[in-house]
Amino acid sequence: MRRIVLVSAAVVILSGVVTFTTSAAGDVDGEAVPVSGVNIPLGYRDWPLISVAHEEGTLSDLRAILGNDVAIKAAREGKRPFPDGTIIARIAWSYDPLEESSQAFGHPQSFVAGPPKNGVQFMVKDSIKYASTGGWGFAQFDEGKPADEAMQRTCFPCHSAVKARDFVFNRYAP
Amino acid sequence: MRRIVLVSAAVVILSGVVTFTTSAAGDVDGEAVPVSGVNIPLGYRDWPLISVAHEEGTLSDLRAILGNDVAIKAAREGKRPFPDGTIIARIAWSYDPLEESSQAFGHPQSFVAGPPKNGVQFMVKDSIKYASTGGWGFAQFDEGKPADEAMQRTCFPCHSAVKARDFVFNRYAP
Lengths: 174, 174
Description:
Two copies of one chain form a homodimer.
Chain A: H1 2-21, E1 22-23, E2 26-29, E3 40-41, E4 49-55, E5 61-67, H2 69-77, E6 87-97, H3 99-105, E7 110-116, E8 120-125, E9 136-142, E10 145-146, H4 149-152, H5 155-159
Antiparallel strand pairs in A: 1-2, 2-3, 4-5, 5-6, 6-7, 6-8, 8-9, 9-10
């Protein structure tokens, strides 16, 4: 009897600890951004790929869009609006020519990801908490730290260009 | 005693079934390519991302490099040569301007993944089986079907340009 009580107590304590350290969006890391209060989700770098893009102009990067399970499922089904619990990550790197490829092909050919650039961005869907910004909490982190409030406030106005697609620019690349 | 015997028998039978339906490279799908005999690994599309690239010239695509667990671990550690069991996948799409982004920025800005293009390619590391091609089995599939033998034989000579990097062009993008 004593052993059962001890095990039950351990389970209660552990459950409390787990609840204390995770947010509604799952396990997170570091400081939350101003405005949306979004944190960096743990393990996002290994999430599956939604799509890729190249940005020209001042951004000049190669980027990848990754998604958690909820995001991937909805993206693959072409489902809009995305369900609550969706988290989409945007990572990016400098747009660099690949020397060995130019040699192999005999002319400039390949452009690959150089060092990380333009921070890491997230969109977290919670249609109640973020009702004033289309249901999405936006977040930008530069070198792991939250970007300032002015930067955070630029996200939603720009994404409003694709309001008809639930504020998400990307489409799933099969 | 009888129950233990039945459970053991079930485990033995199930183990046999699992062994029968998987290859040394894991679960696979469809027809193997000529030359290397590589099949499409099941679930590759959801593997984590190693890196991204843009190819100009006749290829004209946006591409992503994905890796199985062995590949990701080695790539992240910058480890060369890659260990046996590494599988690297290259998927690609047409390089298309994104209309809504041009509107949001006021000038041509973003290029995104359009329809799939240039097939799907794999590199499978088995330093004994593929000793004559640097330890790698190469495979190209077009619309899910193996490309012809002539195409399969173009892979290794081109990848020889990066022999010093274990025949792999890409580098992990953190």
